């Protein structure tokens, strides 16, 4: 479901299309001296705005997919780590090494609460850079702890379980997958965040943005036809809002 602010962005662009249609209907009477307010430039701004909205939608889908893929990859990490430690504990390895493994696992088990902010990650505009950063730090810690746990195993040759999923080669492959999924998420969020910044600049730039331009178009129509004219009533009813997120 689209968020309220996401819908607001689209509504601004849709109303801008209506504004252009009304101005086109005024024929040669609509003839502003400001080049930014000409019909050709309004059409260009409308097309650009649509493109920016679509870019946000596309990068959000990529971001959501990367979020889901990362979540799925990390879903079994904590129970897997506990299995590893239990297997290591009965392998005959040095008790101090086993103690180290248990300590690492304790950190891994407690390094995130529901992996922090998955809800925020999957909803545009409800998230913030801080919430994403907090979540990212949590995943980074999980990877670091898991890597440290594998290193303890590699340094203790007595750890040689028969279970394939617990063997160090399998665990190293698992670690690589976690790192890849985490990196993919980071890159996807960067693209998504940049697309939102680009969209917001097109729509809400205080000098040349869509909302500011719509205000100037309304003022021009008011100056040409008058405040009580039916033409001004047409355009004055179109709502444009600056959306902060």
Brief write-up:
Helices cover 72% and strands 0% of the residues. It is mainly α.
List descriptors.
0% strand; 72% helix; 245 residues; mainly alpha
Descriptive overview:
The protein has 245 residues and is mostly helical. It has one domain (4-236). 72% of the residues lie in helices and 0% in strands. The chain contains nine helices and no strands. It has helices at 4-25, 39-74, 77-89, 95-110, 118-121, 129-154, 168-204, 210-225, 230-236. Helix 2 runs antiparallel to helix 7 (168-204) and helix 6 (129-154) packs antiparallel against helix 7 (168-204). The longest helix has 37 residues, at 168-204. The radius of gyration is 28 Å and the shape is rod-shaped. 25% of the residues are buried. Residues 112-126 have low confidence and may be disordered.
The first-to-last residue Cα distance is: 17 Å
User: Whole-number radius of gyration?
Assistant: 28 Å
Residue share in β-strands: under 5%
Summed up, the helix count is 9
- Helical content class: over 70%
Broad shape:
rod-shaped
Averaging pLDDT over every residue, what do you get?
A: 91
Give the quaternary arrangement of the chains: single chain
Structural class: mainly alpha
Ranges where pLDDT stays below 50 over 5 or more residues in a row are 112-126
List the helices and strands and how they pair.
Elements: H1 4-25, H2 39-74, H3 77-89, H4 95-110, H5 118-121, H6 129-154, H7 168-204, H8 210-225, H9 230-236
Helix pairs in contact: 1-2, 1-8, 2-7, 3-4, 4-6, 6-7, 8-9
Biased composition (Low complexity): 125-135
Region (Disordered): 107-135
């Amino acid at each position: 479901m689209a968020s309220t602010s996401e819908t607001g962005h689209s509504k601004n662009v849709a109303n801008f299309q209506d504004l252009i249609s009304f101005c086109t209907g005024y024929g040669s009477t609509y003839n502003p001296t400001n080049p930014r307010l000409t019909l050709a430039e309004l059409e260009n701004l409308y097309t650009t705005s649509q493109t920016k909205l679509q870019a946000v939608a596309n990068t959000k889908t990529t971001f959501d997919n990367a979020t889901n893929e990362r979540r799925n990859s990390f879903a079994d990490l904590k129970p897997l780590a506990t299995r590893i430690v239990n297997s290591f504990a009965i392998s005959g390895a040095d008790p101090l090494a086993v103690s180290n493994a248990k300590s690492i696992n304790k950190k891994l088990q407690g390094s995130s609460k529901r992996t922090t902010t998955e809800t925020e990650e999957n909803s545009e505009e409800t998230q913030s850079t801080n919430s994403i950063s907090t979540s990212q730090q949590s995943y980074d810690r999980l990877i670091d702890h898991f890597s440290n746990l594998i290193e303890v195993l590699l340094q203790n040759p007595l750890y040689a379980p028969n279970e394939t999923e617990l063997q160090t080669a399998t665990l190293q492959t698992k670690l690589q997958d976690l790192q890849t999924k985490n990196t993919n998420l980071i890159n996807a969020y960067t693209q998504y965040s940049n697309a939102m910044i680009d969209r917001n600049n097109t729509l809400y730039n205080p000098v040349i943005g869509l909302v500011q331009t719509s205000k100037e178009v309304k003022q021009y129509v008011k100056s040409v036809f008058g405040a009580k004219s039916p033409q001004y009533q047409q355009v004055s009813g179109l709502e444009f809002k600056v959306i902060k997120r």
